[in-house]
Amino acid sequence: MGHFSISDLEQLSGIKAHTIRIWEQRYGILRPVRTATNIRTYCDDDLRRLLNVATLCGRGYRISKVAQLSEQEMEKAVMACNDDSNNYCQQVHALMAAMLAMDEVQLNYLLNSSIRRMGFEQAVLNVVYPFLQRIGVMWQAGSVNPAHEHLVTHLLRQKLMAATDALPAVNAASVRRWVLFLPEGEMHELALLFMNFALRARGHHVLYLGQNLPIDGLLEVCQAYQPHSVCTVLTAVPDRDQLQGFVDELRHVCGSATVLLYGPVAQTEPLQLPPHMIRLQLMTDFLAFADQMQEAMAEPA
């Protein structure tokens, strides 16, 4: 069970700490326990309830009315609110509350609803990514159970693969060719799976090699496939003191292909980038690059 400070609640919910204290004292919304040094701490149930309260208040409900709702009534009201495709914050709050309850059915319903209303790519960018960022904050604070992360990751991986599988096949001979891979020891695959979907949706051909690929295996692939671009996501590996050596070796292995680096490890400073290697800070930077390549394909020779 998580243990949150009031500043954690503020960061995760977007509700100011001052407002949280008022809601707690005046309406009994939350029931913190106090440490031996008289510091309030909050549990998963408190955070889940606060997220639901924030969702309802964001839709115009009066806090005095929300405070009178039972847990079941509040969840039903939140579900009724989750039909606005433009209110991303409310959708993220609903997902977090479902995750904390380990409610896989609810998570699946909420994700499917966002995808249906917004389209797959926009739902990932505007709802799923902020949701994952919130989980990351909770992970850093030591207040999220690994089981929560595994539940979400597994469900999102399923949806990414299903959405990609539903796209039409592309002839590699007539379009831009990409290789996507994660280096040896890297297992964080969600961002790479989304890149795979986004490229295929734009008509690129992708050779998806997935997790944990030794770099000597990549050499054989590049020699045979001759990709225009190679992309990798560096979330946990390599170690920062080994990053420059990895980048230099990757440049050598990939021949004339443009190499794109994404992920937190890739942002390490200082890093000397070899020619034709690009460091991407945001997923939208990657999508913009893919769009440029798509436009270049469409131009007459």
Summarize the structure in words.
The protein is of the alpha/beta class. It has 2 domains: 6-164, Multidrug-efflux Transporter Regulator, Chain: A, Domain 2; 172-298, Rossmann fold. Helices cover 56% and strands 11% of the residues. It has helices spanning 6-13, 17-27, 44-58, 63-66, 71-81, 88-100, 104-118, 120-140, 146-165, 190-201, 215-225, 243-253, 283-298, and strands at residues 33-34, 40-41, 177-183, 205-213, 229-233, 258-262, 277-280. The strands form 2 sheets. It has a 5-stranded parallel sheet, with helices on both faces. It has a two-stranded antiparallel ribbon with strand order 1-2. Helix 10 (190-201) links the parallel strand 3 and strand 4. Helix 3 (44-58) runs antiparallel to helix 6 (88-100) and helix 6 crosses helix 8. The protein is elongated and about 65 Å long. The N and C termini lie far apart (61 Å). This is MerR family transcriptional regulator.
